[in-house]
Amino acid sequence: MRRDASDAVLEEPGRSRGLKDVLLRRHLLNLIVRKEIQIRYRGSIFGWLWSYVKPLVQFLVFYVALGVFLALNKSIDFYAIYILAGITIVTFFNEAFSNGTRSLVDNAALIKKIYLPREMFPVSSMLVALINTVPQIVVVIAIALIFGWAPTVVQIAALLLGLLIVALLATGLGMLFGAINVTFRDAQSFVEIIVMCAVWASPVMYHWQMVASQVPDWLFTIYRLNPLTPAVELFHYGIWFPLNPKGAEPLPGMWGFAGWALLISVLILALGQAVFRRLEGRFAQDL
Q: What total of structural domains would you count in the chain?
């Protein structure tokens, strides 16, 4: 039966359905991600090899400078693996958040020429950061295997949950600050401060017990509600804990606070999407 033209559902040109459009245009998203990856390694002789060399060099620096010279191995067993596991997940957050904030400005020429779901750019920034994080995870796991890493299914699940929390959080914040950054470039400088503080606002360079012993209980609860704190501890639980370090204890209420972190990340994603859709009508004009 032939459909009458009057029965067709008309849509306003350029009208966005938010993240749903990104999912419906996965091929375009794939092209943008591939372009960003190719740009990153353009003109490089060793290419992807650098993604494995950098975390390996980091491990050697942490092991010698911090573990041996500063004797931090005496306070935290396998300190170099502990710090590298935490830095890996925080680096994923920092790269996805920072690049997501700049993504609209960096792609101004494309945004002004054609219409496509603008959420595509912060989402692609998160995916590129995730792809760049995979070699770091591979390196830290390979090093942990040398020291006897033997995780359980629950500990592997903890790693995946930590990645999910950070992916949602970074995407939401990238859309929120990316939309604001189009009009007010001060947002980018503010993000740089957040990124600088992120590594210290979660138990990466130190153990959570040091915080618990120095702050009141209510402040320690707020500290654990920071989504990065349970995300980092999930990575410690998945990579560092299987090594059976002496005196290691999970973050109190880790799974409960991981649930809160996931909920907070989803809410921030929803907020980022709402602000993004509110402001995207001015993107082409302000860019």
A: 1
